[in-house]
Amino acid sequence: MATPEYEQFRKAMLREIKNGLQIESDTHRLEATNVAIDKPLNPSDLDTIKKARLRGRSFADKVNADLALIDRATGRVLDKKRVHVADIPVQTPFKTYLVDGAHYQAKNQSQLKGTAYTEMTQAGDVRSQFRTERGSNFQVLFDPESEKFRMKVKHSHVGLAPILQTLGVNEDAMQKTWGKSIASKNVVNEEIRQKEINKFAKTVFGDWKIKGKSDKELDAMVVDHFLKESVLNPEASEKTLGTPFKNVTPETLIAASNKIIGIHKGKVEPDKKDEIFFKRMRGLAETSTDFIQNALPGIQRKIQHRLTGERRVAEIVPLDAFRRPIKSVFTTTRLQGAGETTNFVDILSEDGKVTIMGEGGITDTHKVKRSAMDIHLSSLGFIDPVMTSAGTAGMTEHLAIGSTIKDGKIHAPFIDMKTGKQVTLTPEDTIGKVVAFPDGPSRDGLNKAVLDGEMVEVTKDKIDYQVPNAKFMFSSITNLIPFIQNDSGSRAIFGTGQYTQAVTLDEREAPLTQTFFSTKNGKKITFEKMIGNEASVISPVGGTVTRVSRKSITIREGGGSTHTVPLYDNMPLNQSGFLHNNPLVKTGNKVVAGQVIADSNNTKNGVLTFGRNLITAIMPWKGYFTKLGSFSAQKQPSVYRVNI
């Protein structure tokens, strides 16, 4: 079954391809209709995926379009044909995208929402950083000694007052807002105002765009730039500025400047822009759309040059025009990576990653502030506070179990304490709400909880929502660590890495120590069992097994219909990783729906399994013990590579 991530990615690529094929030259016009995948590949066709991997090819759907070449002067159709115009990678059953023989997985990226974030720098300066959804980012700065406001755009500084004056704010309005002293030091005469506006326009629009423009035209361009083109997020703006601004207006700039003054006077707290409710989540569909849109001008120029000379539409649109940039979404960006895929847990860990790095985010690890890498209490129940990547600690995180990303927001389960029912919330829903930890009250009857990113202790009647269970605070991989409540943070982080790096043994045993998750139908479900079921093959129906082979198991239902379940047959992943299924049933066996009918090389009877339960010894030396002092004298056969 296709995941929502893949469905959104496929729709986004089809939309961008169609838009990109609407091109005109002075004499001709190219029209594209019915842009679609005529014969979609079967994502469960493991044999085709394996062949593509071994041959260094891609597992991708062919995109076709009805193209028409039209004479603009007469409107006559010169040629039309259905043409293969692009390829879109198909998501495999283990949530990878096979491109040029390598398995890629997409990360989720968290970006700041569009609003003004007012904060204090390490040097003690206060600034308001405008992060726009669309338009130019800029900063508003205030010098307490000169009492002057400045606006920093790119590497240029201009006065804030000239911008406000151009937007229609007069001196009286500034005096009411800032007071007479500050207003008098910022308001400028018409000559200086125009010089500042010219400087701003040159920085934002460029010399070529403002050349020959009158002062009045430049003023109009600046007004449109702020009021129409600079878009903000209303939810975030209401949190930081007190009003749900949709654009950068005079009122927006005034509100930001007032907040700067308030922070300087110690009357207002700076914004905590790294809190989760200020983040917008972007998946593969959004990041790939950005990539294609950036490549679109170059694509269209190449096609436009062919419009006049060619008379056959099949020759006008080269296949590589879109296939190459779509492929580059995976092979050249930081947000999609070809990991080691050592085992199933490694694959699972990549699927839930959330990062601040990559195109559209932070591109240099040295520019990441410490506050961006810290654990934030507002992430309770949404983000795992333990699991992170060793090389980018705090920059790459993982979703907690039960958390999903939809419409740019994380959705996670909580208990509504007013009704006792489970509800799904986003970080925005928790603003102004008391969200309690799941461990209940302490001896004094107070419950530890979080309110707008701050730890509080409240009585039960003050709690709005509660995390359903301590397990819902972590990812499924962190939950594999036994006795995690007794582990130090650094040891727990180290433990999550061990699971993703484990090489499975040939003669393996299900672990005697497992971590409990829940009870279903009177049976205890562990995380090893839950993840093991994902890695194993489960019967979709009840019936009788009629055929078992290396590549599939066939089951006949009572009504006579048959179901063929595909199996991994030494499926090569990246580097030395692979997936392989071993059937647990034989021809003639009766099975029920939901039964494990085949193990993988990462499971034993449907339980996640890498090693064996060994008798270990601890070697003290002169009364001391080292954490690496345990050993086993038993040699264990391992399987880590299969030559096919």
Which spans of ≥5 residues are poorly predicted at pLDDT below 50? 640-644
Report the portion of residues in β strands: 25-35%
Query: Terminal Cα separation, in Å?
Result: 28 Å
The CATH architecture classification of the largest domain is Alpha-Beta Complex
Number of domains: 4
Gross geometry = flat
Fraction of residues in H or I helices: 25-40%
In the CATH scheme, the class of the largest domain would be: Alpha Beta
| Radius of gyration (Å) | 30 Å
Got a strand count?
Answer: 39
User: Helix count, per DSSP?
Assistant: 17
Notes on the protein architecture:
The chain is built from 17 helices and 39 strands. The chain has four domains: 4-101 and 283-329, Rna Polymerase Beta Subunit, Chain: C,domain 2 (Alpha-Beta Complex); 112-278, RNA polymerase Rpb2, domain 2 (Dna-directed Rna Polymerase Ii 140kd Polypeptide, Chain: B, domain 3, Alpha-Beta Complex), CATH 3.90.1110; 349-480, no CATH class; 508-618, OB fold (Dihydrolipoamide Acetyltransferase, E2P) (Beta Barrel), CATH 2.40.50. With 644 residues, it is of the alpha+beta class. 28% of the residues lie in helices and 27% in strands.
Describe, in short, the structure shown.
With 644 residues, the protein is an alpha+beta fold. It contains 17 helices and 39 strands.
